[in-house]
Design a protein that fits this description.
By secondary structure, the protein is α+β, with helices and mostly antiparallel strands. Helices cover 47% and strands 20% of the residues. The protein has two domains: 4-153, Regulatory protein AraC (Jelly Rolls); 159-266, Homeodomain-like (Arc Repressor Mutant, subunit A, Orthogonal Bundle). Strands 1, 2, 3, 4, 5, 6, 7 and 8 form an eight-stranded mixed beta sheet that branches. α1 (95-101) crosses α3 (133-153), α4 (159-175) crosses α6 (193-204) and α7 (208-226) packs across α10. This is Helix-turn-helix domain-containing protein.
């Protein structure tokens, strides 16, 4: 399968930092040739596929893409954050940072988001104000080393939380068509709604209701993209009282109507 190449870093540039585009339409799998990419998200929701792995977008979070890495986005909430593009040569005088590039995981949590995103904000303004190369390269060195340190500190939840969340997701995948209230799942799991919400918060930084809405949205997207069912039929399949409620639900999470999403998805 051939993939499109997207060139976001001009030949004369060795590094660039920009804000994440506040758009929600799905992207086709594509490659970025000749440079490394670090993506830091403070807001947003959805999925990011890198190679053959798909990751949930749960801010604050980071992603690393090596040169030529295939990836695509499918956001369900408008993202916010920064994208840092750079050629390997720019770190030639920073051997520690250069070494970090070959140890980055594709996806990592960001623990001290306030301080770290302040660094990114300062880096962005220095770039926009045409700061000199030494200053921008120093910022890049700091961001690479700091984000690598954060990626190494990412720790999984305790086993009971992981097990409870996996159980919730299993039940949700089995019953989301007919059960769309968090209280129903708490009852199935023989736990309080407060406990279920805590499990979800610790696992994906969202309430149980938000996780349920995300699952309904995924199915709605699948039906819009891969079937010819009309909006009323999809609303009925997903247990909405009427199509207008379904349209409001879909637009509140994606900023698009179902038909607008279908049009963009089919045009990919």
């Amino acid at each position: 399968m051939d993939f499109n190449f997207k060139k976001k870093l001009d030949d004369e540039l060795v590094l660039k930092i920009s804000r994440m585009k506040p758009v929600i339409k799905p992207t086709k799998p594509h490659k970025h040739a000749g440079y490394h990419e670090l993506i830091f998200l403070s807001k947003g929701s959805g999925q990011h596929t890198i190679g053959d792995e798909t990751f949930d977008v749960v801010p604050p979070t980071g992603f690393y893409l090596g040169p030529g890495q295939v990836h695509c986005w499918d956001f369900s909430k408008v993202p916010d954050g920064f994208v840092v593009l750079f050629k390997e040569e720019v770190l030639s005088h920073y051997p520690k940072a250069l070494n970090c590039l070959f140890q980055f995981p594709k996806h990592f949590k960001i623990q001290d988001e306030g301080a770290f995103f302040k660094i990114l904000e300062d880096f962005y303004h220095a770039f926009k104000n045409k700061g000199d190369d030494d200053l921008l390269t120093a910022f890049l060195n700091l961001v690479v080393i700091k984000s690598h340190s954060l990626s190494q500190k990412s720790k999984p939840n305790n086993p009971s939380v992981t097990s409870d969340f996996a159980h919730f997701k299993q039940l949700l995948n089995e019953h989301f068509m007919e059960a769309n209230h968090a209280e129903e799942y708490a009852k199935m799991m023989n736990m309080s709604l407060k406990r279920l919400n805590k499990v979800c918060k610790m696992s994906v930084n969202a309430t149980a209701r938000e996780v349920i809405k995300e699952r309904l949205l995924i199915e709605a997207k699948n039906l819009l993209t891969h079937t010819s069912s009309n909006v009323t039929e999809i609303a009925y399949k997903l247990n909405f009282t009427d199509s207008s409620n379904f349209v409001k639900f879909f637009k509140s999470l994606t900023t698009l109507t179902p038909l607008e999403y279908r049009s963009k998805a089919i045009a990919r």
